[in-house]
Amino acid sequence: MALRATATGTGDGRHLFGREPAMRLVREFADRPGHASRPQPVLLFTGPRGSGKTAFLDALADRLHGQGPYARLDCEVLDPARLSLAHIAVELDRHAPDPIAFPRFVAGQVVAAQQLDVDPGIARLEAERALLEHRRADRLRALLGGLLPHAEHVGRRLADGVLRGLVSWRHGHRAVLAADWFGHQDRDLGRDPLDVLVELNRRARTPQNQDDARDTGELLWAALLADLREEFDRGTRRARRGLNCALLLDDVDSPAAKPLLDALVRARRQYAAHLPGGCDPLTVVATSRGKRSGAVIATGEASPLRDIERIEASGPEPYYTDFTEHGGKPWYPVRLRDLTRDEIGNMVDELGRYAGNRKNRVGAAILRLTGGHPGATRRLLEEIRVRPGDPVDLGPLLGDAPLLGPGGSFGLAEPFRAGLAEEALHDLVTCAAARHQVEAERLVAHSGLAASHGARAVFAPELWVPADDGHHVLPPVLRRVLLRELAARPEQEPANWTAVHTWFRETLADQGDEVGELYHSLAVGEVESVARRLNTLLAYSDLPTWLDLLAAATAAPNRLDHADPQLDQVRSLADWTHPGAAPQAAVARLVAARWIAADPLGDSRRHALYLEIAACYDEIAPHSGSGLATLRAESEKYRRWSELTD
Length: 646
What we know:
Elements: H1 20-30, E1 42-46, H2 53-64, E2 70-74, H3 81-94, H4 103-112, H5 120-133, H6 137-147, H7 156-162, H8 164-167, H9 173-184, H10 193-204, H11 210-233, E3 245-250, H12 257-274, E4 282-288, H13 291-298, H14 318-325, E5 331-335, H15 341-351, H16 356-370, H17 374-386, H18 394-398, H19 414-417, H20 422-431, H21 437-446, H22 455-458, E6 465-466, E7 472-473, H23 476-487, H24 497-510, H25 514-523, H26 527-540, H27 543-554, H28 566-573, H29 584-597, H30 607-620, H31 628-642
Parallel strand pairs: 1-4, 1-5, 2-3, 3-4
Antiparallel strand pairs: 6-7
Helix pairs in contact: 3-7, 3-11, 4-9, 4-11, 5-10, 6-7, 9-10, 10-11, 11-12, 15-16, 15-17, 24-25, 25-27, 26-27, 26-29, 27-29, 28-29, 29-30, 30-31
């Protein structure tokens, strides 16, 4: 059974751009080939704030509605494990087409909620009596209602469904069977079930003790999973269970989520250790800003962070196959990728205001600024929607005010700065000059330009995302906002733009990092020194290396005046060269032009700028030895790009 596709993919009428591969991945894990359960990891979707994690879960819940049991929880407001598990059971039953019985789990909850005597013998009698007394649906409903005072649904369905297992057999016989499970726990333990339940009661009453809370959560998870196995893998209903239960957990970086999920993983491992291949019919889909996903990868409990679009889509189940081929580990972390240019183009089309090159310009400008960050892209498009006229360039749209100032960014940076103290935010602005986290850490540790005691907040996992080169970097839109704030700092402030980039340039030069030295030299405006160095390297470097160095250096941020025409800026930045000095004059213009083109807030009308870059490659080509064809191809690429803009 496949998850039902919807017209919009979300409950709010908006398309879920870029998330269909993630939906297909969940479908593969939730499907039950042959109506049988198979091993399941925790599917851990990770991305920075604003990357659409909550919207993804909302859309997933929308698609699951009416197809199979699911529960949706926000981990920021989780109760202790015992209460959260009760909530999960209630929600799974509430969203199930047929009622689900949880006799083992409810038996554990019944005993855990009692005030048992300290004498073990008396406590055993009281536990047994409590199970017999809670054969009545009203008593059980009152118990669960007390556990879940804020639950929306604790009524007849709860009595007829979640609690059905305790009252459907005469004289409470099924309640006795449920209690018996605690003796063997599907692992042939051979323990006395009432002794186990009394121990459960004792541990449940001291949740502040971490060991007790851990054991309580693990045992109740095991009971709940055993109930699900009976519902899905045995009896007449098995043929109707084409889709697993689904548990959707938002923000598992929260402290309360860790013990809940750790207990689930331990319960699964212990069952599988007794019965190799033993599994359960619960697909868990969780979201993380990076803290949890980074932790499980570091401890070896997960495969490396997966880019699902890069998993070869060969065979009927590429994602589940990838999971098994990477050892079937208990966690399967997946990167929620950013939006592509074409997906942003579809979002621009929703506005119904742009066509042709103007649409291309808007989409390209948004992609350059946001890097495809879904939340920032949506905010920019919403701002464009309410602005008069048809704004195309983002520089004027954002205005001159620093983007972190009051009302200066219409919220572009707000998702990222949540919870950051002002001191940490100040240091994060300083660290934005760094190319990646390793550079930023060196700055904090050795420059004296940042308060090192704020480093933990500055380098929180949710602020730094993996890049293709293996480094961790700030999300592009966050870095652009922070760089704009850094550029606005007065020169008398110690950690100003020039001071920070100069520290990097000198430090990296001492370390022999030529790429970093050129990058930060260009950031402080030293076009001449960078162009002269690249001109020298052209004579004896292999061309691919030279082109990589050119691209890396000219990716540096700038503080240029966007009001000046781009070609005037190119000529001004290269006016120290002699027009006939070949190829130096062309190299200087190329450095300046590519540097300007890399600025996401520059003029989006880049037709003339791209033609200038193409002409520079043509001029340099005869001086590149065997690289003539390569540079001609670079020239042709920019000529094609010029056709896509005004």
